[in-house]
Amino acid sequence: GPVFVAHTEVGGRAQMPCDVLTADANDRVVLVLWYKDGVGAPIYSYDSRKHSLTNARNWADEKTLAGRGHFDLQSSPASLILDNVRATDEGLYRCRVDFKKSPTRNARTNLTVIIPPHVPTILAEHGGPQVWTVVGPYNEGDSMSLICEVRGGKPPPHVTWWMNGQMIDDSSDSPRPETVTNTLTLERLTRGHLHAVLGCRASNSNHTAPLHTSITIEMNFQPLSVKILASREAISAGKEYELVCQSVGARPPASITWWLDGAHLTNATISTASNGNVTLSKLHLVPSDTDRGKFLKCLAESPVINHQPLHDHW
């Protein structure tokens, strides 16, 4: 007879079909026996030899089925239903059907039990510590390497990396038994990687949703520009002026300092725009007549990245 194929996940429900229909209206099923893996003794029997179909005797082997199996004659085709499937249920099932008149019929079902893998773990490169929610901060231009590790699963899972919902790496390997890894390397991080969501997915069955773990990339940027926002017209000695210096593009906010011919001016307040991208510093300046021809300079630098400071001068 035919060999059916059934896939089910651990804890799921398996259905092994067994055709019991006959063309002859006067014929009927008298005995159905189920066997597993060619073992001589049946694991389930449905017996209507001495009874009507509705009062047929059902018997199940406690050791194999443990109260989880029943034969459903009403389904089409009739099937042995197995609930709360275990890994040990995998194997070849055979049903043998005896009729009152028709010849005996056999049907086989090869049951594969899928064991889902564990949830992916994301590790810093070279087997470093586990990354939980955020990775970084990285500087612009840095390279980044992360390892996604997935344990368990039958069949072994396929492990993929995704960024903002797009697959970016599907090359996984198995460095040791029961473990599949995928190492992701991004050679040059750009400003576009800020707060990108990186996800690792593990899948070993079309029948179930992939398991996934995601993290966010945190980044530091040096300032892109600095500018003293002033008209550069002549100013008068003894009067108070409020000058503004604006720096754009730093993360965390730029550190802004004011200098007058190399002397650090401390009479300034700093504020950061709500999106964090723009930093403003206001300087209260009361020039004296000896300040004519001096250079007023505004300097912007990242508090966390070593770089050549940006400056604007008047």
UniProtKB/TrEMBL annotation:
Superkingdom: Eukaryota
Name of one Pfam family that matches: V-set
Keywords noted in UniProt: Disulfide bond, Membrane, Transmembrane, Transmembrane helix
Cellular compartments annotated: Membrane
GO CC terms: membrane
Protein's UniProt keywords contain Chloroplast: no
Domain Ig-like, residue spans: 1-112, 129-216, 223-302
Record InterPro entries: CD80_C2-set, Ig-like_dom, Ig-like_dom_sf, Ig-like_fold, Ig_sub, Ig_sub2, Ig_V-set
PROSITE patterns, alphabetized: IG_LIKE
Membrane topology: Single-pass membrane protein
Name the UniProt record assigns to this protein: Ig-like domain-containing protein
